[in-house]
Amino acid sequence: MAEGGGGARRRAPALLEAARARYESxxxxxxxxxESGPDSSxxxxxxxxxxxxxxxxxxxxxxxxxxxxxxxxxxPAVAAQESEEDEAGAGWSATLRDRPAPRxxxxxxxxxxxxxxASAVDFFQLFVPDNVLKNMVVQTNLYAKKFQERFGSDxxxxxxxxxxxxxxxxxxxxxxxxxxESVLSIWSGGFYSxxxxxxxxxxxxxxxxxxxxxxxxxxxxxxxHGLYKVQPxxxxxxxxxxxxxxxxxxxxxxxxxxxxxxxxxxxxxxxxLRKRKKRKFSLWxxxxxxxxxxxxxxxxxxxxxxxxxxxxxxxxxxxxxxxxRSLCRTAAGKNYIIFTGPxxxxxxxxxxxxxxGIYCCGLLSPRKSxxxxxxxxxxxxxxxxxxxxxxxxRTKGSMSLICWYxxxxxxxxxxAYSPVQQGVIIKRRSGEIPCPLAxxxxxxxxxxxxxxxxxxxxxxxxxxxxxxxxxxxxxxVSIAINNAYILYKMxxxxxxxxxxxAQFGERLVRELLGLEDTSPSL
Length: 522
Hints:
42% of the residues lie in helices and 13% in strands. It has 522 residues and is an alpha+beta fold. Among the domains are: 118-222 and 459-513, no CATH class; 249-304 and 318-458, no CATH class. The strands form 3 sheets. The protein has an 8-stranded mixed β-sheet with strand order 5-4-3-6-7-10-9-8, sandwiched between helices. Strands 1-2 form a two-stranded antiparallel sheet. The protein has a two-stranded antiparallel sheet with strand order 11-12.
């Protein structure tokens, strides 16, 4: 027994190296987002966080599905023959043909080369430049003026300036590294107080700016969108993302972890949780799976309990398809490969995207996905489970429907990978599990995004305003900071001074407050 245990230990490094080689062959870079250390150097197949377990593998449908009733002798064969005939009539076939992968000639990465002396604020201002901040100054002062005309003069108010607006942003951003919900703790004498930051601006002045802060002061007569107070900022941010980064071929559509900071959840009381207002919007992203860079943001605002509200959006696959179309509206004709979750995956959507030069690979769930046009025999689990790693495939044109077994049935729909090519999932305990290449690619890319989410949630702005547009604004700023850090790690500036994500955030705060030079120290 001891000898067998020693053999297993000797095999572990080899399995790790094999997993890492497969990982790199799928064109997924090292963990650009993470710091050095055990959290960021592991292979994505071995992620053990709750988010990774829920997102990367989806959920097996075996628990919800039940095998069909027992039939008499000969009945299963007759039913199988009838099913095959029906599938053939619908265009589905068990005959597999090799097909080339979508050709991609572009190279992903930063578009603009930043100098080695670039500071944290230089990378941040690729997305939030001074002209955007100046507009916030104008709109905040305009709102303060109109507010006082309506509700009475505020003798303590003085028009905000650009340096003050930068400091204001810096104070709120500081909650992403301190993990303290109350920005006002900076001026307190408690654990989260920071005297060096508190000296830049008084607490009274910060509270006045917070009271009147606006991106768009008033609704125009032509505006009907519920996010009108923050939409110009989102549009500007999107333009900055497009101008600064060129994504790789493989991308993921998903809903990132934005609900709560994990430190707050672990330490708060039930009363504090009950006081929280339910979030009135949902946020999806299109994200580069090679680097973690978020390419595009889509915000769906809950505007009531109607058919287009958030509750309906969570339950209706056709509305998730609308989200996917919005996120991919600039991806046409570039041969991108998009990975999707069960709520988005559908034959109709994938065929529509293929006509636009967008290829897909998605996890499929008979309970959550739109299964219109798919062969029923592939959606039902057999009475006796097959051996681990076994799979069956049906094809229709360039589309492949895969049913793969690994302690449960997992189904995938793809037109991006050949049904003939084989892959392997490498697990630390069970070793190699054979699978189609599409399954391996999905597991690798989604695990990488789960690792990104695990780290991303640690550096989210903890300030929680009550107004929905302000919540969206600070979520977007958090995404911009994470994207700025990714560009920083891919630049020459990172080789001058290697900041971790926490150090990058702290330096950005000090630079916005004017407490640091805007060039890295040598």
